[in-house]
Amino acid sequence: MSTNDTFLAVYLGSKNGARMAAWHAMPEAERRAKEQQGMAAWGAWVEKHQGVIVEMGGPLGKTKKIDASGTADVVNQLTGFTVVRAPSQEAAAKLFENHPHFAIFPGDSVEIMPVLPIPGR
Prior knowledge:
The chain has 121 residues and is an alpha+beta fold.
């Protein structure tokens, strides 16, 4: 993977935030219609940007944290990821403006960070 033009996009969302509470408060039929609208919009986003998507990624499940104390279940705001190529971090960020993750679904944001080279390689 090239490190000059490769960016990790991390989708963030709070399971206990106001956006998620509003999502769950919707009548089921309305929520299902919104889900279908969101999936169609996400598919259109993928189609539009397929030339720069390096790894589609996907949703993330429950998290385990491993450290010197052992292994534990933890909760964080990471909900998914995608890897893209772009000429700059700003250009990569523009790909996600008005993304369905937060424009339709109750996600909070998308964070973009460069994939850096491994030192000494």
